[in-house]
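Chapter summary example.
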Amino acid sequence: MREQVWRWSSLERKCLDLLQQANTTSSLLQIHAFMLRNSLDTNVNLLTKFITTCSHQNPIALVRHTRRVFDRRPNNDDTFLCNSMIRAHMENRQFGESFTLYRNLRQETEFEPDGFTFTALAKACGLDMAIWEGQELHCQVVKIGLSLDLYVSTSLVDMYAKFGRMICARKVFDKMTHTSQVSWTALICGYARSGGMSNARSFFDRMPDKDSAAFNAMIDGYVKLGDMGTARSLFDEMMDRNVVSWTGMISGYCHHGDIHSARSLFDAMPKKNLISWNAMIGGYSQNNQPHEALKLFQGMQSTTSLELDGVTVVSILPAIADLGALDLGRWVEKVVRRKKLDRITNVGTALVDMYAKCGEIEKAKRLFDEMPEKETASWNALINGFAVNGHGEEALEIFLDMQKENFMPNNITFIGVLSACNHCGLVEEGKRWFKAMEGFRLVPQIEHYGCMVDLLGRAGCLEEVEKLIEAMPYDANAIILSSFLFACGHYGDVTRANEVLKKVAKLEPGNDGNYVMLRNLYARKRRWSDAEEIKRLMRKNQANKEIGCSVIEVDGRIEEFAAGHRVRTHTEAIHLTLQQSWKHMMGEGLRSSQMLNFLMGKVYQQFIDKDIQNFEDFQLAILDIFNTFNSSLPGKHYNVPSHKEIEAMFISWKNAKVQDRRDIFIQFMKDNVRLSKVDNATVITGVVTPPVAMAAKRAGESVPQLKMIKAIPDVFFVPSATVLALVSVKISRRIFTGKNASSTHSEPDIQTKTETIGVARAPQGGAAASSVIGNHHEEREILPEGPPAAS
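The structure predicted for these 791 residues follows.
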């Protein structure tokens, strides 16, 4: 008998050791098989430990297996065992199952709940917002006599606080004979969450020992109210700030647009975790600073060992979409697939939105179809993606499919639908869907009115637009008025355009596009005095044209170039290279060898200005020069030298005299460059044709006989015209060469080229070239210096 007891004890200890070491689903299933083979499944303590361990592994399938094991338990009313199963359901967010199990145990067995039972059930009810079950639970707590238990009462306060029923929470709190920091914090969190900051502050001031959780609850409450000053003062009072405190303040500043203060706090954080990085990256994206979001994301990748999660992906993808950084977006998608984050619905939605905004609409559609679960935001991303890419009919078809799948559209959905109608010119369809919003219990917002104004304005329904603006329940903003203004200008309605300009100038006095549009309209009507008056008004209001910029992606880095800005690292080298290349292409510059010697001398001067202490510094400087040239110099290709070649050059450069080092450097650069001849006529044609084609297309659109040209998108018209011009140059050269086979094959001089190019000029006599992309309008001024002289 003693040997039998010892054998059971040793098996029990062995099973407990195995459960402590188990960290996978398969290992737990093997342990269960071990328990069955050795008849250990009748041991209540081991069974409880097994259920608790399984609940921490989280897979739903494992919890279901655990429930089947629990249903075959030998003892039906063991409180400890039943609590473990209730908590297992609760920890895996199966709140309904946990409460249903509790009811069955009370009805079918002699199970006697204790404080741990009600604590777990109160938490489940609070998380599931199960108000009726929570009230039932409170009644049973009073009936059993556990209402004075500190932990049970605290869980009830927290439950009612999550329900937002602060009167009930306050009653439970006032009846408590003993309180703790947790109970005080639960009540304060409830008041702060429901917006009752006066009551929250009152209890916070009365709290005997304030901990970081109470401070965080108060800070979060003031942040939601927009009172960042009070939130910051509480933050400064905290003696023990944790990551939650710092991240809460950073998120608050980002949410209210104070990105500078958010970044200052982020930089001052003593220890950052992934949540902090996500908050700052998301803050930059929300405040339309995609460049900064991208820099911070790349900094997190290079300076920390943190692995991105779904929140990181959702935060960075909007910034990537705004910049059109498609290569970086593809890299993020690969990481998402490797980590299997694409199964998360909002991550899949963010990928669909990114590809759609970058113009990869077919890729976006494939990702949408691959999503295991969809939500309304997923449909919205695809509908808006098709709409902004000019596929209005496809967007409307997807909208109908969305309704067939029983997804309820929201305000964002109808923005995409109205935009699709706008792109397709479906005026009646747009009106119908605008009126149909009431049937979906949606109130049109100012964005929907803006879409309708643009739709009707493009169709020439100016009187309807005027009535719609007067009838809408919002004050017309600058975007709506500008859209109406450009519609009036397009259809030549001077009276309405003049009235609209007076209104929009009060909202956006510095936007030059509005003035230029009306000034060009006056010029077309030959009202020169009114045009000059608009020009004086522009000077009075200091209306300046917004500086244009271009963004390129090179080796995963985003480079932005703004007109006239000289703040980049290699600005001088880029400008010098462009200047010399232009002179060379125009036939006025130096020979290739002379230009190369001159350029290398300037580059070497910048090279020696760097503090080169060792071979690593030398190698980085050399590679930086080659990478810069390969990404900026046209008509040249630099062969990046190998590590051995750079090392040999460093040795010879270091051992040489100071006056000889420049020649060694220039010769090394020459050895690794291949120059290609530049075809002057081809380059000039490629540079001049796109703007000339745009001007010609705009002029043709105003001619009634050529209205069909408006149906051709600019993205097709301009490249086609450029290719046609280049082919024409090539054919002309061949014809000329054939007729003059005996003559010297020399290219025409600069004057001849200029005269040839000068044939295709922009429209004169006050014509205007305008481009409209979505709701953004850009008016280019093509006015003569003054009114024409009288004949």
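To summarize the output: Strands lie at 549-554, 557-562, 636-638, 673-675, 769-773, 776-780.
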